[in-house]
Q: What sequence folds into this?
């Protein structure tokens, strides 16, 4: 059990790890959580320069930055890197799992290697990171915050994204199980489920979400900005979210609400292809 004098609502993130923080939502989250006196661990897979750019932004906000490589195609690296960060930071109280990959291949054409790569990164790797962080937080005895960045496809399918949808759906339920099991230790576990966000993963890095980005199928008529997702993550990591546990916060401009409305307005079969 956590220290009963450390109520969840008084929690402040101090020793933080954000995976996949070399760009996009991960970078925006690391910067959003950076404040004087805090330490932020940043992981990267392929873009080391991007990770160090994130580190400079974190340092400019007054926090200390720590950078390490993490390749979740080998999921157990997640456990090793989280434990190493905990040693570097003198403990761990906040984890944001933002690493991810995807596919755009129809089910009938997909090779097993593609399936395994996506599931390894998006689900197996997330599990290893989450478990290691939870163990560190329980040992620390002061509670903690864990947030997994999932996707709207935690909740709804997409053509061509079978392993991605399966992994994000599985991660969403892993979050709920962890929320049940870790609450007695003062640890909350939640998911943030973004829709289309202007990031490298959607081919829109550093592009304005307001200029030339009309999205008629999204009620707010545009993609999201990574900072809009990061603001939600930062809230869930902070003191005002002490009573939020096992939730999935959708940040999608209302996309998921379209459901039958969007379906009834389709005029062709283009949706059947990725």
A:
């Amino acid at each position: 059990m956590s220290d009963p004098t450390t109520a969840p609502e008084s929690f402040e993130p101090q020793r933080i790890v954000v995976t996949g923080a070399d760009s996009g939502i991960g970078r925006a989250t690391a910067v959003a959580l950076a404040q004087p006196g805090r330490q932020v661990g940043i992981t990267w897979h392929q873009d080391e320069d991007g990770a160090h750019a994130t580190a400079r932004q974190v340092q400019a906000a007054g926090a200390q930055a720590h950078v390490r490589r993490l390749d979740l195609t080998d999921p157990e690296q997640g456990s090793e890197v989280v434990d190493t960060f905990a040693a570097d930071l003198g403990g761990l109280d906040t984890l944001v799992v933002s690493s991810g990959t995807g596919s755009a291949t129809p089910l009938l054409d997909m090779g097993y290697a593609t399936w395994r790569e996506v599931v390894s990164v998006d689900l197996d790797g997330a599990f290893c990171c989450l478990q290691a962080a939870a163990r560190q937080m329980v040992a620390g005895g002061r509670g903690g915050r864990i947030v997994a960045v999932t996707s709207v496809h935690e909740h709804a399918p997409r053509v061509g994204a079978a392993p991605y949808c399966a992994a994000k759906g599985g991660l969403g339920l892993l979050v709920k199980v962890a929320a049940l099991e870790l609450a007695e230790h003062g640890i909350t576990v939640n998911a943030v489920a973004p829709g289309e966000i202007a990031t490298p993963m959607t081919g829109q890095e550093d592009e304005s979400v307001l200029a030339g980005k009309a999205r008629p199928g999204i009620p707010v008529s545009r993609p999201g900005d990574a900072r809009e997702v990061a603001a939600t993550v930062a809230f869930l990591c902070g003191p005002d979210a002490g009573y939020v546990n096992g939730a999935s916060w959708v940040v999608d401009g209302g996309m998921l609400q379209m459901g039958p409305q969007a379906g009834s307005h389709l005029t062709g079969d283009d949706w059947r292809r990725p």
Summary: The domain at 8-272 is CATH 3.40.50.720 (Rossmann fold).
